[in-house]
Amino acid sequence: MQPIRVGLLGVGTVGAGVFNVLARNGDEIERRSGRRLEVVQVSRRDVAAAHAVVGAQVSVTADPFEVVNNPNIDVVVELIGGYTLAKDLVLQAIANGKHVVTANKALLAVHGSEIFEAARQRSVVVAFEAAVAGGIPIIKTLREGMSANRVDWLAGIINGTTNFILSEMRSKGLSFAEVLKQAQALGYAEADPTFDIEGVDAAHKLSLMSAIAFGVQVQFDKAHIEGITKLQTADIRYAEQLGYRIKLLGITKRVEAGVELRVHPTLVPSEHLLANVEGPMNAVVAHGDAVGTVLSYGQGAGGEPTASAVVADMVDLARVIDADAAHRVPVLGFQPASLSDLPVLAMAQVVTSYYLRMRVKDQAGVLAQLTSILAEHNISIDAMLQREAAAVGGEESHQTDLIVLTHDTQEGQMDQAIARMEALDAVLAPITRIRKEGLA
Questions:
Q1: Which residues constitute the domain of residue 325?
Q2: 248 and 158 inside one domain
Q3: Which of 440, 257, 420, 265 is nearest to 350 (CA)?
Q4: Number of domains composing the chain
Q5: Cα gap 143→383, rounded to integer Å
Q6: Strand (E) or helix (H) holding 397
Q7: Which one is catalytic: 205, 247, 253, 436?
Q8: Domain check: are 277 and 155 in the same one?
Q9: Is 205 labeled as catalytic in the residue annotation?
Q10: pLDDT tens-digit profile of 196-239?
């Protein structure tokens, strides 16, 4: 049978990994898919560097449009990243009737609806397992493995850079700035780490998973996003004393009023599986009504782990490339005409519990003032920890840290309560708020 001819856009770390995996495991892949997967053309600005990876037998061009317009290519693999050029290339490939495999979560989070609709009209596939959590097959798990379930919620550590930083801050007591420099030196963080440390990368991935879990459109623009730049080692230490660890989580839930879609630092019980995911690793927990809780864990980045997911998508394509479009797995797991219009909730509507750290004057009556305000906003206290004055300001200090864990309450109520507490003369600094999830 004729091989499936592949065009590769980008021959960097992941692109080289894809080429090497196909070269090394080509026979095994053909046994699984029934078709040979053959890279026939690649694009990279540095043509000599591309040839160093793929050799002299594969056509190399500096012009990626030459690849997407090549009539001898069946599948285009987009690994260049970004929003603009990548979008133009993917849409051109689709217009030319080519299937697309991509690892570009940013592209799909922002332009996914347009790209998926274009693919539907041309009856081609857009596959993106590698766009979320690297080598972990979480897209397939949600779209196919849990297709018998009503998915209730999922939560994940889906950015290895931030998880490495939080793990090092906890284990070594270092500041955020110190560990960020270490992460950059080790190659876990980019020179410009903004998308990682501000939670944007995780929100891109969460938007795709939420769409598949609940059968809704990709809605990245409605996600609530907070990063880890404001976290302090004191909060990590206090959380540990209370039996929790802080992780940057992407959380999406189906509730009566709609869908929650949020990325933020989160207190997780220290015995929970996610609390024990350390270093640059990724993990996603999903809950379905029939299967219960499912954990997916592994490397969320890197050349060959991500290449593994790219090639797995290519194998899936090889199995269905001659099938009628109506008999393929829908791109978001639900039939396009059956996608729901469930709204994404504003953060003020979300119900969760909280960790509050309040720097206050060490004097009588302060605790009563604070607890009175919480009670007036129907916020009940689950646990409380007060540090000795010397622990926060030295022997002569007249201030203390008061740490409060609350039961569930609506975020809007908490916003109002915090505003009132911060207005008190006894409260000496902005209140640190970190959301808390049991993930039961």
A1: 4-135+303-338
A2: yes
A3: 257
A4: 3
A5: 39
A6: none
A7: 205
A8: yes
A9: yes
A10: 999 999 999 999 999 999 999 999 999 999 999 999 999 999 99
